[in-house]
Amino acid sequence: MHTVKTNERRGLSKVLGLAVAGATLLAGLVALPVTQASAFDAADDFVEGALDTSKTPQLTVTKYLSGSNGTAATGSILDRPTAGVGTPAKDIVFNVREVVPESGKTVADINPTDASTFTDAPSGFYAAGITNGQGVIDSWFTADASGAPTSTPVTFASGQHYYVMTENTNPVVSPGFNAAKYTESAPSFFGLPYRTTDNSTPGAPAKSGYIYHLHVFPKNVSKGGLTKTVTGVKRGQNLVSIAQAGDVISYRVEHKIYNESTPAYKDQKLDIAEVKGQFEDLRIADRMGTSLKMDATKIHASITAPNAQSPVDLDEGTDYKVAFGTDKPARLGNNGTFFANEQDGKAAYTTFSFFGNKTRLQQAVANLHDAQGNLPTEMTVVITYDATVTADGDSTGDGGVANKVESDFIDDGNGKGPDTPPSDGTITPSGSVAFGKLQKDGSPTQLKALEGAVFRLADPAHPTSYLATDGAFHPTTDTGVTFFSATSSPAGLVAFTGLPILDSNKKGIAANWTVVEVTAPNGFITAPNPFSQVTFDQNVVGKTEQEIVDYYGSNPIEPDYNQLSFATFTPDSAASIANPAEFNGKIVAKMMMNYTKDDKDAPIGLPLTGGRGIILLLVVGVAIMGGALYLRNRRNAARTA
C-alpha cells in the first residue's frame, strides 16, 4: 500500500501561501473540453495545432483552503493565486476516473455532479493521489476500492480522453480533510490533453491547441466566517518556507459580513442592518505566544467584495480600534473571554473592534458595487499585519511559530455573539523542540506543571556555549548576539522554535544539540548537567527546504525524541501527571523533573548543605586532625624521654 502520513494537526490549521505551484482557487474545475484561456506558461506545455497523440499528458493538482470562492479556471499554472488567498492542504486524496458519455449523450452533456450523464470508460482507469505539504499532487497511483492510493504508479493515456475528478472525504483515506470546518470541493470534468484557445494577444489571431500538462486548483471553502492565512515569510528580502528567528511573517485575516434583504438574528452572520456603530459590532482577537512579536505599525484594514472594482480602506480610530494586552480579551456583551478553553500560556493579544460609524460603513458598501452598479450581498473585512519570529520559544503550545484568531459579532438583540466564537489559526513550519517541566504535587508519584524554568541549547563539546540566532554557538561573554531560550509556561511547556535547521547550502541538519537548564524557579535546584540530545531524523537531514515542508506540511519540524534523555531527571513512569503539557495538539513526548532544595530524593550533584555529604567530610576531617595530634604528641614524648 502507498503509505499515507496522517496530518498531526487538529483541524488544519494554515501554512504559508508560497509561490510554489499555487493557483487561483476555484470550487472545482467544472469545465467542458473547450474553453477560452489566457496566455500560458512553459510548464503548461501548450502546443498550438492538432492533437499530438505521441505526447503523454500530465495532471497536477494543488489543493487549497480558503475563506471565499475562486474565479474561473483556464487549466494553466498561471491560475495560481496571489499570496494569502489560500493555504495549501496536506494529506487529502483525489480520485480520477476515465469516463465516456452515457448512452444517448455527448461529451458536451457530461456534468460531473450528475452521474446520469456519464459512465466509466472501458479502460477502467481509476487513479488516486494524495497532497503533500504544499498541497500538490503530481504523482498518481492506482486506487483501491476505498479510493486510497496503492503502490502502483499510473500515467495518463496519450490521445484524447475524458476524466471526472472527485475529492475523497473519507477521513481514513484523507486524514487532512476537516468536514466540520470546510466544504467539499466540487467534482470537476476535463479532457486530457486539454483543448483550449489562446486569445490573449489583442488584434492577433487566436491560437487553438492543447495543454498537455493540466494544472487544476480545487479548494475547500471555510464553513465559518473567519479565516486566517500566512501570505509570506521573509528573511531579509527573500521568501522562505521554513521560518527561523528574525524572519518576518505577513498575515491576512478575513471575516465575512453581509448585506442581505432579509437579515435575521441567530443566523451566524453579521448583517449591515444589525450594525450599531459603537465599536461593538465585530470583534476579532489575535493571540500570539512568545514565538512572535506583532508589528503595530504594519496593521491595515479594508472591506472588499467579489466583483468590486477595488477594496475600501478602513480608518483606524474612526472605523475600527486596536487594543493590545496580555489578558484574554472580553467578548461582546460581557459574554466571557476569547480563547477561554486554551491551555495556560503567556501570550500577547491584539483586539480589533469594528465599526465606529454605521453611516461610514454604509458608504463603504455603496462603493463596493460591481461594474453594473449592483451592491454586494457578501463582503469581507480584511486585516493584514506583520510579526517577527523571536528566539524566545512558544509559550502557548499552539505549534511553534503559530498564531490564532477568534471573532465575535452581534447575533442577537442583546448585542451578544454566537455561543461558540469562530476560530482559525496558522502554523508556519519551523525547527522546534518541546518537552514538559514538572514538580511534585505532594508526593513523588503526584506531579504537576512547573512554570519559570529557563533553558538554552548548547554545543555538546562546550556546554557553556549556547546556540544563537546566527546559527553559531557563543559564550555568554559575547556581546551583540541573541540566544535561543525557552521558559516553561504555566502549563509546564518548554518549547524552542524558530531554530536554524538548514545549513549554508539550505539542506537539513542533524543538529545534535544538548539541552541546558540555565535558571530554575525560586526555591528549586538548577539541573547541573546538559541533557543529550536534540537530533533531527532522516526526514530533515540532507533534505532541501522544499522536501522538508512537503513532508511536514503545516506542522512544526521536531526532532527524534527517542534521542533526548533527561536521565535521572526523568519523572517516575508510574507517576500521575495533572494536565500534562501539550504541543501542537499532542501531549509532549518527554518530561523533566525539577526538585526543591529540600527534596531528599533529588539527583545529587554537589553535597546537600547540612546533609550526609558534609557530615562525612567532617568525620573524615576530625579523624585526620586527631591522627595528626596523636603523632605530634608521640614525637614530643620521645624527645623528652
CATH level-1 class of the largest domain: Mainly Beta
Largest sheet: 7 strands, antiparallel
Based on the coordinates given, report the CATH architecture of the largest domain: Sandwich
User: Domains counted in the coordinates: how many?
Assistant: 3
Quickly count the helices.
3
DSSP strand (E) fraction?
A: 25-35%
Distance between the termini: 100 Å
Shape: globular
Helix-residue proportion: under 10%
Low-confidence parts: 1-38, 608-620
Predict the CATH topology of the largest domain: Immunoglobulin-like
Structural class: mainly beta
| Number of strand elements | 41
Q: What radius of gyration results from the CA coordinates?
A: 31 Å
Mean pLDDT metric: 85
Keywords: Membrane, Transmembrane, Transmembrane helix
Protein name: Putative fimbrial subunit FimA
InterPro entries: FM1-like, Ig-like_fold, TAT_signal
